[in-house]
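Problem: given the chain below (518 residues), write out its structure.
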Amino acid sequence: MGLKRRISLYLISILSVLALLTLVALRWDSHQKAIQLEEVEARGDLRRLISTFQARELELSGTLKSWSNWTGLFDYFANRTDKFREAELSVQAIAVASVDFLALLDLSGQLLDVTEVPGPNGETPATEVIRKDAHHYPAYVRLSEAASGCGAIQAQARVALVCLSPILDSEGGGQSRGYILLGRWVDAQMVRQISEVADLQFKISTVPTLAMGAQRSAAGEQPFSPEAVQILTHDTHLELHYPLTGLSGQTIAEIQMTWPRQQALVANRSYAATQALVIALIVTCGFLLVLLLDLVVVKRLNQLRRELGLIVDSKCWTGDVTVSGQDEIAALAGYTRGLVAVVHDQVQELQKLSQTDTLTALPNRRAFNERLDHLLAAHARQQLPAALILMDVDHFKKYNDTYGHPAGDEALQKVAHGLRTTLRRELDMPARMGGEEFGVLLPGANADQALATAEVIRTTLQDMALTHPANPPLGVITMSLGVAEVTAADTATSLYRRADEALYKAKNTGRNRVVLGD
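Solution.
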């Protein structure tokens, strides 16, 4: 019998014994884990359901904002006319706004007006509750940090979402003249719509409420509270309960969600035995393979790990992987070598991109500053002449306002192309400094040469005749340029400042010109 067959026979025999010994214990363990996982998933689904439910509250809050900052309603409190009420506060008017009832209160909580869309039998349960409890509502708003709040009310075994806010003028300011309350019933249609959006089944059950005077918290948005979730476990499903709070923070109803226990049912039938066998096989095979195949597998993998670790730790990505052979580990080593090569190339490319402006393909300000530092250091050592040119496209904001930012980007690309074609010397460095500002470093150029180069740049751009009606008198894109010659006392900051002052002077003396800095 060959070695492969003997090892297989030994493994099968040992696995069978261990599987029988661990089957019972692991069956119970897997069942408990399934229950825990179900509860985690059920809580997550409940949270998603609550978020979908609260979205309806946000819709109502958005409707309330437009009403509470309505100048017409603000004025109505000062001059209550039947014409305004019939036109804007009628049953038809609030129905158009997808609101089931509306109430207006003065600053003391006195109910001034209430409108409710009647039920199928003409009932108006919300009106009765509001008449009874209206004097409590202003206190809730005053306790709210947002000066408004949303919650729920219970009326005749029905639940409604309500939002309450002070009434201000259209600017959201001024002294409030009263309060407005909007409500929408949590009816079968809303429950069905939320169930379809969340793909979860639930219902609303009312519970006895606290007295309105037993206020526990201010009105406002109630975030999801995992501690408030109650879970009842049944054989085939989980039943989750979550409180729905009223304006004063008291529980007035419960959201009851039914969540099928699919994982537990599957685990009871087959998961435990399969899990036990698989775990036993994996653990045992792993232990035996470590003993039998250490030289063939582990040693070579450790070698690969050490070599790859050296490459990663060095961060130079130039090391080599020496593991060889004709098996899967050798193939992995080959892929590793390829991956290291790709990372090396990408690091080089990223270094290049970090110094290149993506729009114009010119060097960016970072690359420009690095070159400027080298130029100043060379000047300090050898006293070689050098100069800096800073330039701005004239009235470029007006160009963007006229043609839009895509056209502005295209114009900047053309300006960059003009710079590249104008600067012939290899050491000259154009760059985009940001927005419509560009810069040029001219090693070996004195002030007169820098002025001449700047004038060539200016005339080249002007001759390109890129239409710009908002840039009189020529009506084409032009540039203002400031030139500064490097001196022994210069730092990068002082050189920039002198060039920028020259640029500022060019702009203030008519634009489309070159000015030499002091």
